[in-house]
Write a structure and sequence with these properties.
With 105 residues, the chain is of the alpha+beta class. It contains 2 helices and 3 strands, in the order αβββα. It is rod-shaped and about 65 Å long. This is Nucleoid-associated protein Nitsa_0136.
Length: 105
C-alpha cells in the first residue's frame, strides 16, 4: 500500500509546505476581491486575507438606512465567500506541486 512512499523526504516536504503557506499568506494580502450589490450601488472590496479594504456606497442609499444595511450585509457576505473560495483554490494549487511518492516536487 505504501511501497512508493519515500519517508526520508517527509521533513523536506513539510518545510516546503510551510514555506509555500507563508508565501501564499503574504501574497493573499495583495489580492483584492470585489463584490457589488444592488446593481452596483454598494461595492465592498477585501484582500485575500479577508480584511475589508474598501466600501463604496451610492449617495442615493444614504437616505434609506434599511436598504443600505441589507445591501451591505449581502455584499460583505458575497466578498467573504469570494475570499474563502480564493483561499481554497490557492491551497489546492499549493498541494498540487507536492508529490509524497517520490520523484521530487
Amino acid at each position: 500500500m505504501f511501497e512508493g512512499l519515500d519517508l526520508s523526504n517527509m521533513g523536506k516536504m513539510m518545510e516546503q509546505l510551510q514555506e509555500k503557506a507563508k508565501e501564499l499568506q503574504e501574497k493573499s494580502k495583495e489580492t483584492i476581491l470585489t463584490a457589488k450589490g444592488g446593481g452596483g450601488m454598494v461595492q465592498v472590496s477585501a484582500n485575500g486575507a479577508g480584511e475589508i479594504v474598501d466600501i463604496t456606497i451610492d449617495d442615493s442609499l444614504l437616505e434609506d438606512k434599511e436598504s443600505l444595511q441589507i445591501l451591505l450585509i449581502s455584499t460583505i457576505n458575497d466578498v467573504l465567500k469570494m475570499v474563502e473560495d480564493n483561499k481554497k483554490s490557492q491551497a489546492m494549487g499549493m498541494f498540487g506541486g507536492l508529490n509524497p511518492f517520490g520523484g521530487g516536487a
